[in-house]
Amino acid sequence: xxxxxxxxxxxxxxxxxxxxxxxSQEVDRQTKDVMKFKLHFAQGVLEGIATENFDLIxxxxxxxxxxxxxxxxxxxxxxxxxxxxxxxxxxADSLAAAAKNKNVDAATVAxxxxxxxCTTCHKYLRNTRRADxxxxxxxxxxxxxxxxxEPNENxxx
Length: 157
Ligand code: HEC
Description:
The protein is mainly alpha-helical. The chain has helices spanning 2-50, 54-68, 79-100, 104-131, 140-156. It has a single domain (30-147), classed as Four Helix Bundle (Hemerythrin (Met), subunit A) (Up-down Bundle), CATH 1.20.120. Helix 1 packs antiparallel against helix 4 (104-131). It is elongated and about 75 Å long. The chain starts with a helix and ends with a helix. Residues 32, 35-36, 38-39, 42, 75, 81, 84-85, 88, 114, 117-118, 121-122, 125, 137, 139-142 line the site of heme C.
């Protein structure tokens, strides 16, 4: 009887463990998807700017703003991360306003500011990750993007 109870307890613990493992992978996957879409929509904005297609700018700016409001975007509870998210959303708003006013110069400036917000947030993530080394999550592509920017920054001054 005791053995049966222990066996049941072990079986239940195993099931719980599997459920939790799958859940956390699911959250990870959703976050990854959200992050990947950012690049896709940002490219859409750039295409809109290059071809003066204001509808294309407007729809992609709205999608970028919506992404930043999704639960899977919120991977850090820090004030700094919130601030960086707000800044990103502000750039998306500026893009939308520029598209509405059919002002390609304003859209170009807002796009530039948004790109700065991309790298600022990725740098923040990289630095904080370094500080708590040992966290399993990684930032492969974003790392490469940010690393690729470093030599230019040094050259600028
Ligand atoms: C407020 C913070 C923040 C901003 C702003 C931000 N990102 Fe990210 N980015 C993240 C996080 C968080 C990840 C995922 C980190 C991880 O995988 O652990 C990420 C990952 C990525 C990835 C890698 C996705 C993958 O497949 O692993 C790309 C590409 C990316 N971001 C593009 C962009 C672009 C383009 C912008 C600007 C238009 C941007 N990001 C702005 C936080 C941000």
